[in-house]
## 1
Amino acid sequence: MAKLPVTEEALMAKFGPHLNVAPPGGWNAGLDIDKEVKTHCCFCGQQCGIVLKVKDNEIVGFEPWYEFPFNEGRLCPKGVKRYLQGSHPDRLLAPLERDESASDGFREVEWDAALDRVVSEIQRIQEEHGADSFAMLSGVSLTNEKSYLIGKFARLALGTANLDYNGRLCMASAGAAAKKALGVDRAPNPWSDIPLADIVFIAGANIAECAPITTSYIWRARDNGAKLIVADPRVTPLARTADVFLGLKIGTDSALMGTILHILIERDWLDHDFIEQHTTGFDAAAAAVREYTPQWGAEITDVPASRIEEAAELWGTSATGMLLHARGIEHHTKGVENVLSCINLGLATGKYGKPGCGVSTITGQGNGQGGREQGHKCDQLPGNRDITNPEHREYIASVWGVDESEIPGKGLSAQEIMNEIHAGNIKGLLSICFNPAVSLPDTKFTAEALDKLEFYSVIDFFMSESALHADIVLPGSLHEEDEGTVTSAEGRVIKINQAVSPPGKARKDWEILLDIAERLGKKSLFTYDNTEEIFNEMRIASHGGTADYTGITWQRVEDEMGMFWPAPEIGHPGTPRLFEGGKFFTDDGRARFIPVSYRPPAEVVDDEYPIWLTTGRVISQYLSGTQTRRIGPLVDQYPEPLCEIHPNLAAEYGISDGDQMTVTSRRGSMTLPASVVSTIRPDTLFIPYHWAGKKSANQLTQRALDPVSKIPEYKVSVVRIEKADGSVAVTDERDMELTDGSQA
Amino acid sequence: MTSALDDRPIFVIDQSRCIGCEACVHACGECGTHRGTSLIQLDYVDRGATVQTAPQVCMHCTEATCAEVCPADAIKIREDGIVQSSLKPRCIGCSNCVLACPFGVPKYVAEFDQMMKCDMCYDRSSVGLAPLCASVCPSDALWYGTRAEFEATRSGFLENRYRFGLQAITTAVFTVSDTPLGDLIDVMAESSDAPWQDDPFALDDASKERARCD
């Protein structure tokens, strides 16, 4: 019974999103504070250091943390305004139970009643339909300790194989490719390597809006004389300044990289010694691109051959270079192949394991790196171990004090779990910090699936659009209400410090899980008094794995402002740069060239759907928007999705800037204002995906998955468009407010 | 500026590095002297054509036009050259300064019936801290430090002389050019001259095999 209990309007009136526009007490309350807490931004994988100012157990402002080495005080707008997620009118303060007779669809219940209900439903569903009929979905906004705990909780307390996480929608392709080719899933370099690069190659990464602080590293490289190549279907704010811009057709990334590899081989811009001493498989990879001439590449990618050759020459002839990629090449049915095609460029030119050299993903989510190591992926155990590997299972079973047979096998990935819910095979779901109603592709399908659940419980701090479908909502903790560690995009393990305690009856996430485990009769396996105890068990569990945290201690993380894994023994200095001396994490220590042949995306344009659509982010919003759609100044900056469309295409359909337009795919249709800009390819539309319901870009996207990483193809859909009635003013409302006195 | 002042921090705007993120706009509204009201302008130059944006803080002119035209003598200049926001008891809200400033910086804020503008985060810069906007800027388009630090870590030349019609202006805030420009600053002319800029998607590239739609 997971249909919305009352109308969406009634739910929104009660639970929001409402906007928090000012700190507690208002702007004039002053900054009289009790304490300052050094911690990190709750949003993206950059994990910028920030100082939160606290008064009366509320966060009232921030101060730049100038000493933290990654960002030295820098913040993006989300970081500046992050503190406004605290003391928020939408904050969940007590457990809620679905109640169709209540005007707002839910009634407050006591914790005992809520937890008893959750546990009785878990037990009922598992008794009737088997252990795996109850699934869990986790999030990588959570700390390492919570990620580890959830992996153990799902396997041993719930006893289900079906646990996965929303990193599946983010870094899964990059992680799978890196493990395959390099034997380890971590950014190969600390970001301090970027300024040492002679060439910086950005592929499918809107760095200015999605990893803003990285912009400063790229400018430092350019101050040192580096050149910049950007491959993107849009002229993004950083692409605007590029020396070489490769405005490729969406879905053709591996063709572009394959062509560059072809040119590197043709012109002999190769590091033969490196290839011979530190890699295997070069000949097969070379054979795969034998026909990928610049002319062929130009035809497939729609980028002039001369520009591809220029990029190849810059990459091939520079002594040092960094290739940075993100969701732009990873959110594809061939996301893993796209990443492998980039790795091949690094291996071919020996750009690994040296200062200023590396091919790296830019991890997107807050704990996107750490969250994919600690074992809450469907195929993984802690230390980035493989759940199907008997030795790995034995070791983790020994750490957990259980028999190996008690650990379930490999489960389904996030989208596959939703598919099985839709098919009626998974009947119950517990989710934490995951908003599939907005973030999964094909939102109509997701809503239908959530409606079919017999029981759905959500742990979160705001009522996400998914939580509206829940039977029991448990109020968990915000980032600043608990302490723990996360691992940033660089592979730097850092400390999140608690600034305030959870308000009302809200509780820390891990305490909630411990209570559920106890009610499920598994208390003896979950006896932690604090998060440091979970961390210390996690270190033991990670020992001997690739993501080895053994030598990383609570105190050192704090004292040294972060440590890079692996640190396989106590006293180890940590490993900022991987692969030094050409030593990779594979069995034979050599990196693998993996042949990549270009293949088209799952959907291609045709007469019925003649236009390409791609999706992504804007600077002022974050992922499914559960937090950022509740922060007033960020909403004001970009209030609703706009459809970017090139003036040539807009003219064909009589669409002007601000006109409403309807975009239709095989999955659904949405109407939104046009933003007519010549900074996007004329055959492609762009819609940001942070909104819910009728404003959700994922109404249009498809559930096609990469066969290896199981990441959905968010970056390529095909659509048709038409002009709709009405238009919006294209002015910035804030300019008006300042001078007419209506500012809050 | 004389060499004796070279160890004093300077404020630098490099518009070419701006990514339009508005971190500065939001941070400005957190400044202790005018919390809740942001006084930075950040605008797209021409969004239809380019993602180029330009942040505008007060340039803190040596001979400040805003102060010169103020009939109420409400705009004071500090010894270190910082042109302050209007003094509340004196400002009559006439908006002379708003109309006169060549950079379009001062704003008449109706809520307070007063002209307000950037005062270089007086609460911070007076105690040796960087202004909030330059502290947070993710791309160092807004930057605060000494001239020596700038020259040691960054490329480009500092410029602070402008001509607006017949009016020549020298400012305490610097901008950056690729080559020394003389006394005329033209922000748009500074944008990169990479050859792709005129035609990002090579729509007019005859050599390109065009295979739209499949």
## 2
Amino acid sequence: MKKRIAVLLSLSAALCAPGLVPGTTSVMADETENASSGRTELVVGLSQDLDNSLDPYQITAAGTREVLFNVFEGLVKPDTDGNFVDAVASSHSISEDGLTYTFTLRDGVKFHNGETATCDDVLYSFETCAQTATNTAVVGALSGIQDITASGNDIIITLPEANSSFLSTVSSVSIVPKDYKDQATAPVGTGPFKFDSYSPQDKAVFVRNDDYYGEKAALTKVTCRIYEDANALYTALSAGTLDLAFHLTLDQVNNLSNGYEVIEGEMNLVQALYLNNGKAPFDDERVRQALCYAIDIDGILDLTEDGHGTKLGSSVYPSFTKYFDESLVDAYPYDPQKAMELLEEAGATGLEFTIKVPSNYTPHVDTANVIVEMLSAVGINAHIKKVEWSTWLNDVYQDRDFEATVIGFDAAYLSPDALLQRWVSTDSSNMINYSNKEYDAAIEKAQHTTEDEAQAAAYKEAEKILSDTAANVYIQDLADFVVLNPEFTGYAFYPLYAVDFAKIRPAG
Amino acid sequence: MKLVLKKTASLIITLFIVSLLAFLAFQIIPGDPTTKILGTNASAQKAEALREQLGLNRPVTERYLDWLVSFLQGDFGTSYSYLRPVSSLLADKLPVTALLTLLSFALTALLSIPLGIASGSMRSQAADHLAVITDQIIMAIPPFFFGIISCYVFGVVLKWFLPGNYIPLSENAAGCMGYLLLPALSLALPRIAMTVRMLRGSIRDELTENYVLTAKSRGLSRREILLRHVLRNAMIPVVTFLAVSAAEIMTGTIIIEQVFTIPGIGRLLVSSIGNRDYPVVQAIVVLLAAWIMIVNFLADLVNHWMDPRLRS
Amino acid sequence: MKNPTKKKKNRYLLTGGILSGFMTALIVCGFFWTPYSTTAMNAREKLQPPSWRHLLGTDNFGRDVFSRVMQGAGTSFLIAVMVVVIGCAAGILIGSLCGYYGGIADLILMRICDTITAFPAILLSLVIISIAGSSESNIVLALGILFIPSFARVVRTQYAGIRDLNYIKAARLEGVRTPRILYAHILPNTLPILIPALTIGFNNAILAEASMSFLGIGIQPPKASLGSMLKDSQNYLASAPWYVLGTGFMMVVLILAFSLLSEGIQQSTT
């Protein structure tokens, strides 16, 4: 039987949403507040609203996932180095043939609603996730499970064939209480923070889970204020309203003058000019290649980030060290002359198209602006259409009604499948309508290869196909600028899109 | 009395027409709400079941009457994008916008009337010129521009308030009013300038009337004439204008809420328009329209009551 | 009694005329020539403060703010002009027929106009845009339609007053055809009222477009209007105040110029 690793599609259209961690509800800027250092309430700013449904299996936006990272956990979960550590399971073991995974349920793990997690809940979670998840990569991976049973405190999962990245799939199945029906509006998990309240377009509040089995969080309350507007968020930040904001641009950070600690990391996003391969003129490979030659990536980095940011070349970002193919970075050197020749060859001179970009994500809007200007140099007349984030999700992501868009895709869990599965021609989240048999075969091969090196090679082959066919104009993994109120410390970057509130603590 | 009845009848008819237009306008738009709710991958049966459940298969007239009846009962339908009743969304946001409107209107009325009287009765030429110039400049400043600048000056530089940190009324009433003060002022400023200009003009006009000369000749002081006779007449057009202001301030909040990040219906309206979340847009439009028309209606009545010429 | 005011009249007209003439010249010039390219980006010239080279400094892409303000004001200006032309032309047509003929059609049309004018333009244009989709021509159309009633009202009142005057009666008796009476005989007499209405409408259109672009449903990049530039510049208020202030100042002066002009015209004709 074939093991089909399902590929979850975590399509998180990740955006770099600047989020901020709000501190206390009213961080008054007066001195008394500073005197009592040791505040345990954090105010965060988010630049986009949360998804309509907060059910962990229904999340599509990276901006929602990175926040709910604090509420939900799987049997195992990733640490900051990308290793999987036990979470709801207290230990796990893998048989020598790699076919049987045994997870021992941790004693006394309590859900946020007070119930104790049982093996039944775990089985329920795997089943529900496999049936309902919007993430096609996860659903695919779970469909490859031959058998899952509980025996005493153990959960035993049997696979038809070995799969070296199966733990990442396990980590993506959030353990939720059986038959709890209100996940969409009042999510309940096992994480270090409990969901408290959410008011659309206003704020979401999380409080510390005092029954957490592991080390309890230092913060007692995290208020995420929702801005949906980069300017409003930035003004709030400048005034000191917020304790934490992430996914900021260099320009924004440079212009802050009020003593925030600035931390630079990587956003872990594949930012690209995504092209609708199913729609003329971008169904013509030569036109797509022409765009690649016409866009000067270094120029974009210089103009928008003073040279920060990492060039990509394909759909994998560098934190996936094993799978990142550096040689693709300069596959299309800046060459406007060649771009014009290709356009002429394709009969697409005087090309005109529209780039839809979510208005709340400054880095994407800035990048789109620069692209438009660069394209005008080769006679392409591109327009920008800024849309609300939820409109982007509806029109571009869901309905695929677009010609081009600038966005960043994140990995919902730590497997290259999380980034690459979505471009398989039959995948329901293949937003760009990419259709390439060789690519499908390469991914299929990678998913069925158990040997590490060979698997990595297969993924790299798939990445090369994306680059050769110029599926998209790959730009960069953005530099992620995080600003934190110096009263706090402990912000940690993960190799995926996550903000861990539990690591943040009062400074000193 | 007869006039009140007539005006009420006309108000109700107009409201009815507005509700019909608001309903029909969103029916002619292409696109099926079921795809919005279920996504494009939903099966045909599922979509059909939802159509049935939403009553989309029934004739338009029937749907309109249904919608109107539930609307009057406070049931505004379900938001496509938030998947919750529109009324529950509005219950959170409408009071915020109402409070902001009220505050801004109060500022407009309280500041513009004394300023207008002062400016109308001013006798120094130089001061008058200065007042007129200031007035013209303030009128030319768009509220959102003033909002941006004041966010920066009072929030970022002076730190008098925290932009983006709206405090709900239920949490801290004083804090909430404090936060709303600047947005209210941004909205009020151009209205104040316009009202002052109007009141000034109307006082000047009245001062040239014969009855003022008569009063003067009877030895009444300028102050007495102004307060007891002139003002009453001069206020008539101003009252109508203030009513229009109340309506315009309410719609002005749509923009100013974005500048100051106030969780009112303005933000909800703009994002719902982007999402084509028509139940929400419909509800907000009809409610705003009702508000505008009721305010105008009240202004008409007050006007009528104040102006003896209209009464006869 | 009239003397002191007479002096002021001229001042309004003079200041308004000079200012709006200057702004119009600047804007028209911007259609053909700007000191720098309005789109070319330059990483080395980002966020430069005002200098002789860049009168209003540069923006976050190193573009000359003054050149962009010229062009952005041009976009706003053109939209406002088209809106006023649509509103005024249709308003004159409807208003003249209603005013001249009266009757039940007049009653109904004016009732509709009253209802529309009761709504602030921004609300209705948001609704129209939400149905028709956001594009420059839709904005012009939406605002244009919304501006019809205010012109129609003004024109109708004038026509209703003039139609029974003796010289019109005489013209009718002489067999002058109705269109000629409507637009050659009566129309010129409505100008003293119509012209201030035009300038006020123009200002309202500038504001409405700016508000819509500020909300993100108006002009889209790379095209700029004063509203969209104000929105973009907000992020750089602290580090590059000239960007916001330059844009905002331009908008204020433009509006001020035309409202002074309208004030001046109004006073000199009453």
## 3
Amino acid sequence: MSRMRIISILVALMLLLSSCAFGSDGGKKSDSNKSRFGSGGELLRIVSGSENIELEPLIKAYTDNNKVTIEMTYMGSVDIMRQLKSNTSEYDAVWPASSIWISMGDKDFRVKHTESTSLSPVVFGIKKSLAESMGFVGKRVSINDIMAKIKSGELKFCMTSATQSNSGASAYLGFLSGLSGNPEVLTMDDLQNSKLREDITGLLQGVDRSSGSSEWLKTLFLQGDYDAMVNYESLIITSNQELVARGDEPLYVVYPYDGLSISDSPLGYIDCGNQKKEEAFLNFQNYLLSEKVQSDLQKLGRRTGFEGVFDENKGVFKGEWGIDTERILSPIKLPTAEVIMEALNLYQREFRKPSLSIYCLDFSGSMYGKGERGVKEAMDLILDQTKASELLLQSNPREINQVIFFNSGIIDTAIIDPSTEEALNELNAKIQAQSAGGGTDIYKAMIRGLETLKSYDLDQYNPAIILLTDGVSAGYFEDFIIAYEELGQDIPVFSIMFGDADPTQLKEIADYTRARVFDGREDLASAFRSVKGYN
Amino acid sequence: MKTKWIGLGILILTMVAIIGYFVLRPRPVDPIIGYLGGEKIGLLEDEEFKSEMADKFGLELLYKKAGSLDMVRADKTGMSYLFPASQTALELYKSEIGSPMRSEIILNTPLVLYTHTMVRDSLQQSGLVSETNGSYFMDMDKFSAAVKEGKTWADIGLPELYGSISVKTTDPTKSNSGNMFAGLMANAMNGGVVVDSESVYNVLPDLKEFFSRMGYMDTSSADLFSQFLKMGVGAYPMIAAYENQILEFAVTQPDTWQKVGHDLCIIYPTPTVYSSHVMIALDIKGYEAIDALMDPAIQDIAWKSHGFRTGISGSQTETEIFGVDGVLTQVTGVMPMPDFKTMDIIVKELSN
């Protein structure tokens, strides 16, 4: 064995060990979307909707008492479907919010032992006083009643991205159905209707903030001051528990009778022919379906079992919040897979509120080499429309994209409006030609970004600043705060880390602007999908 | 001399041990894999079934779940068998691939409707459903007329349910139970006469309308049935699936059945169609598996624990063992499915 080979094996071993050492006991790895519970035994890698973050204490209790390791990776349910379609071998089990995403994604019939773990309808949670003033309390409310309030500007709301998350997709399909005059089921012909296209585009202008998955939407909602959100009844319940605890106004749950959908939270095993893994999976699934855990799930606002809510948990589902577990939930019929996919494509390409993205690209000396390469690759992925469309991240022509090249000062800027394919390609070429050098000041770049935003009517866009950097910066956070307060708008600043990144400063910015930090070195595509889910 | 005897003793003991090992050692189990209709997973996962198959036949049946029609067209590399829920799948196999090495009907079960008591009662009051000796029957002629008229649930006294009267089925172009219901509806729309490759064109527009109103459809009857159980009457007012599914559920999950059984009911369409679960052998192992599955002990497990009518064990008369109300001892009023050619026309039309 050559010396080089021995060294490379040692290096590989060290890498393996260091990756194993990461958060082996319920800790989160930096800000990535993974959590790991337990150690030893079989490893179950579950890709799950973010709403199941709320179940982590129950998962931890299981791994504490059983020799098994469970790794949860969170993403929106529509993205989970995409994972299944791509024939992934990265996961052993899927746990999206609705069965439809398994059956649409599992083309090779690999998923088995699928069981619904709990139910929760997708609802509108509206600040109670606002729901009252709009006449929604104690009434049967239709999707068109809600849309009328959105159109008149009385109601603004947050929802997850329809192309990433089940709750967003469900609400969006409900809107389309309502706007089409409640057909028995939505068809391709309905989607071609120009009146519908106009109406839905107008309606989606009412979206305040968006996110890639439901639990993240809840987090965002609780950090900010918003009027309403579309989310699972269970997450509205747990949000309300928190809102009430801190003395804030709770949300009132509205079930649109002609636009309702239900999440059934199915957990299924991806067969890989490993019997031990399959057993470990079934044991975990049985645990979740046990009466004790089903009762615990009810405490988290989920509906479970065949008999409805247990007496001991009746108090969780409060009538004063508009919650009604006695009424029959009669959801609308979902359209065919073909119609759903076309509707999602249209959402991304045409209907959704256009984004106004300010990319601040770090071309300082510390980015030289792999950092710089990472940034260029990233921008190529989002600006090259062939690549972007594979991830359902294609650009909407109404979008505005600005790029600010920075080191310790502003090197250069470029803005495109409208974002035609030609303009996007030119912008991409400019980025690919840029080279790195000099010091770093991310604050200066962000302040320049805020200045750009001043000249736009931000109600018409989903604005965001996206920093692509290694995160180590001179300059002052306080300067940024002053500029941010002066603008007085809700602008998230997301960061995607590259090079020898240090997230400390970036985390501070993300917390302040209610955004998040992603690691572009781990999985660039999912980092971008997450950012674009918010923007 | 003594050592000689000891030596001989050791030799004999060793030989006994070796012979004993070969006689008594567990028979080597040969695992084989194939495509399986989801409704039979319960049977293949049954411990009694597994040990009987292993001990008696040295077989372990592994599977990948697939819709009955889908599996015929799926990649069959390394597969030893197909175990769909219908002869239509066999016909499709014959027409697309050729004559199989061997095929046999292993199990039978009629297509039935499942609903909740509140829905059944309303359907009964509106004259679509009738009761005889504790069993319930859906008049398919009246039902297809109500569907054509576009009657809503509210029209028959169920304003709590959204939309028009419907039955949810699996995707008729991919899975057998939905495919059979399409055949059944086509016959009903044809005035109760089996449609053929000419008369089918008269009913295609209505049939297409009926299925297009369903929107998204599951591809597995097992998934459809479990959705029906869990999602409640609002989401799944009525479904079409196999009779054995409720029987199996009552046997394998007695505690849950105790809690929910009173609200669930079985309605036999009149007429109905029979699902014949055919095993198609793709190689010699699949060939042997057919013999094993035809064994009386295996057939007995299939009926008593999973509700499949077998036609050999004769135990069909003992319907009371399941504790499910209204199960017929003998299903009469069975109509043949339209022939393969006609079903092919229907599937093609519904695929568009």
## 4
Amino acid sequence: MPTRKRNTRSCGFAEDDLIAEALGENPQGIQQAVRSHLTVCPACAQRLEQYTQVRFQLGSLPASEAGLAAARRALNTQLAQLTRDTRPRLVLSLWHSPLGPLRIGTTDKGVALVAFVSPDDPESGAERLGEKFAQFSFEQAEGNEGHTALTRKLEAYLNGSRHALDWVIDDGLMRSDFQRQVLQAAREVPYGSLTTYLGLAERIGRPTAVRAVAQALRYNPLPIRIPCHRIVGTTGSLTGYAGNKIALKRDILAVEGIPTVPSRSGFAIAQDRLYVGRQAERTFCRPGCEASQGIRAGNRLFIASRTRAEEIGYAPCGVCRPDRGPFYMETEPGLF
Amino acid sequence: MAAPPEQPGNTARAFGAIVDLHQRSIYRYLVRCTGKDDDAQELFQETFLRAYRAYADLPADANHRAWLFRIATNLVKNYIRGQQRYRKVFVADTPLPAPGVQPTTPEQTFHSQETAHILLNALGALPFRQRTALIQRQLEGRAYREIAENLDCSEDSARAHVYQALKKLRADWQRVTTGEERRCHANPEA
């Protein structure tokens, strides 16, 4: 028994022992002493009775079930808000496009993600996505009208009837300001036109950062929407796409009417069938025209057809006169 | 390890189970510490919101009940402080009725609702440590060791808080149950 202050009553008995008795906390020896004292001291007996009553009444104090239920409901609301607010949502949908399964991810701000999914196992990417983008909470966009509208536009792009895929973009998944700069420059390459990695590096004023530019394009979170497929190697080789999906790049280029040919390293653009645009002069030449020989990569566009060149307001070159008739049967855009 | 995107869901679910398990004791504790349903509801939410924020960093072997009681007790401490400040500022001019002495008529005194009222008032007049120690011991059946941990004091102090509190409640109880008599002494003309 721990020592405690003995509050002694007039009869000489300790008040604390009475309390302990009322609480049932007395060890046996003291319990016996208390009980024998109570038989001779009515004042202490009365006091014990009061303690016992207070204890009993305390135990029967009400706590309303309705109050608890209300508190719990309010708590649930707040907890739900808390879990929801910690991370932004990424709404995902899977669309079986003519190019293969595509995952599209949107945030409140716009489309943040387009990912090519392995056709063999379309669900597998979802888990890896979770690890990669842990900053998001994921949600499946089943029957989401916004996503349906997005895929309808993409479908129109892939069948050649729509040239501008004007989805609103959320650039939140871009990795750096440098990447944003590169991707912004890529967006300025028009439909049905091409430039090279070097050309893009020169356009952003970083002519030696060719490899960095290529890496920035490789990790483009919004392929197709941001046309990194319109950037090829200096030799005309397709070099790579989203890693090594070169056939995919060829297919998307075909959508835009850009001819490709098999090459040693896979595929290359058919340079002998592409007009050459001079961005600064806003003119376009037939391939091999001496006027466009030796121009800087940053000033050069490969253009699929006269129609495309005229669409972007380029004038025919006065030397090779590409306006005097097609030099080959131009491919119409649209693969599917 | 669970994949990150699933984690918040898991956390929320696990935490929900903890709330389910302890909500009744915590709510009861807070109702008795504050004496008011709406204040108790507010502190209840705050207790579990704070708990939720700290939940991720809680060691796996933590005693959830002790942890929740500790958060609740801290909130009660602030609550009591706030009330005392309020009384000092706004009510200081009107003398407070002595603890437990309610403007009751003797006929009402033994009414059971009245009894609860008296006790709640008496509880409400107890200082923070005595109040929380008594409620934890008598109403939640917690051990002195747990109360000591909860209040950062020794077991002996925890026991002393409970006993002190009971002495005051008993005195109030006696005063009220024999109120008529005492009032006659206090106000001979009444």
